[in-house]
Request: fold
Amino acid sequence: MDGGIQGGIQQPLRNVLNKNEAVFGKVFSKNHLTKTYPVSAALKNVRFNGDVGMGKDFDPATWELYVIKKNGDSLKLKLDDLKKLPKTDIVFNFKCIEGWSQITHWAGVKFSDFIKAYGLNDEAGMNFVGLKTPDEEYYVGIDMPSALHPQTLLCYELNGQPLPMKEGYPLRLIIPVKYGIKHLKRIGTIYFDNKRPPDYWFERGYDYYSGL
Reply:
């Protein structure tokens, strides 16, 4: 920290954001569900926004989801492994911190179901989950209550079809209780920590929590 700067912004503003996060964290409830819509309300032409971590040299044939466990062991999973788990759809109003929003239709496996299926109960008892793209250029930290929210998905479909490359094929995060900056595209690594994992947009002055 230097010259009153923390997380990319002046310390007084960062203090305000930290206080906002503390308030959100205290009132957050897994029973508070984001409003959902019928599939007919979903846009067919989904707005594309942001390509950090989506390098053109990505080879989908070699993709694996790398999950680092609390004890240092790891899992390497293919998309087919996740597709064996119960599938969940959600149609909700995806909101960008820039001010625009759109109703979109996504599908995948609930993060909470993924945790149960792979016996990650100890990991779920930690404070945060971190996610990174395969090239590690984009990364987010998510508070565990939001990650385990029943509407949070490890998502592999958009509008009933495999994710387009630009939307994070083969797997991305969809977390309706957060702004779009937390919906990491093209998940390469998932790990767990009791301290805040690094977060791309927090480092550039945005709220770490980024909740709705």
The two ends are 28 Å apart (CA to CA). The first strand starts at residue 5 and ends at 6.
